[in-house]
Design brief:
Elements lengths: L1 H16 L10 H19 L22 H9 L3
Length: 80
């Protein structure tokens, strides 16, 4: 029984021992350049800031009192 348990533990541990080590950066200047170029990308990925916060929880039924469908849609878009 003990042999079976050790065999199972060994089989489960084999893939972990077979993994390659993480590559070491040879030139620190390249690593710093990559980090510096990644910062503007993060800012661009965030997208433009909204001029006002969304009002999801507020009631937009007052928009239904407007006379045309276009005005109703424009009014209700603020609450999306």
């Amino acid at each position: 029984m003990k042999q079976l348990i050790f065999l199972v533990i060994g089989c489960l541990a084999m893939p972990a021992w077979g993994q390659a080590d993480k590559p070491v950066a040879k030139e620190p200047a390249k690593a710093e350049a990559v980090k510096a170029s990644a910062e503007p990308a993060k800012q661009a990925a965030a997208g433009p800031r909204m001029p006002h916060p969304r009002r999801w929880t507020e009631d937009a039924r007052h928009c239904l009192e407007l006379p045309s469908n276009t005005e109703i849609i424009k009014c209700a878009e603020e609450y999306l």
